[in-house]
Amino acid sequence: MSGVIIYPDDRFDLRKLDKKELIQKLQTALKGRVISAWLFGSFATGEFHSQSDIDLILVTKTSAPFVERGKAFLDLTDIFPRIDMIVYTPQEFSHKQEDPIFLATIGKQLKQIV
Questions:
Q1: 6 or 35, greater pLDDT
Q2: Does 82 reside within a domain?
Q3: CA dihedral 14, 17, 20, 26 (to 10 degrees)
Q4: Is the pLDDT of residue 5 over 60?
Q5: Is position 4 within any domain?
Q6: How far is it, in rounded angstroms, from Cα 56 to Cα 44?
Q7: Which stretches of the chain are assigned E, i.e. beta strand?
Q8: What is d(CA 55, CA 98) in angstroms, rounded to the nearest whole number?
């Protein structure tokens, strides 16, 4: 069984949505809540397809456990339901930016939106 969810509804097809408008909605929703926000993956590179999601790194001050941090940003799925987010503290993100594997993969795709 696959972990992929297929959405037959065009509302969830990134190709049919305005990329600039989606980014503006994300920026508005994140304003004052994060230190920075970064797109990566197919949406950031422009190589997305009908079943693509939006990959997002959020950097914020938090003491919540890593696996719990995304709960504070579940409202982003009201903008687009298929958002995969990783929430880092500033220190964690700083360390990631020094990681050669991170830089060789995700680091090349990062597009800051906040």
A1: 35
A2: yes
A3: -70
A4: no
A5: no
A6: 9
A7: 36-40, 54-59, 83-88, 111-112
A8: 20
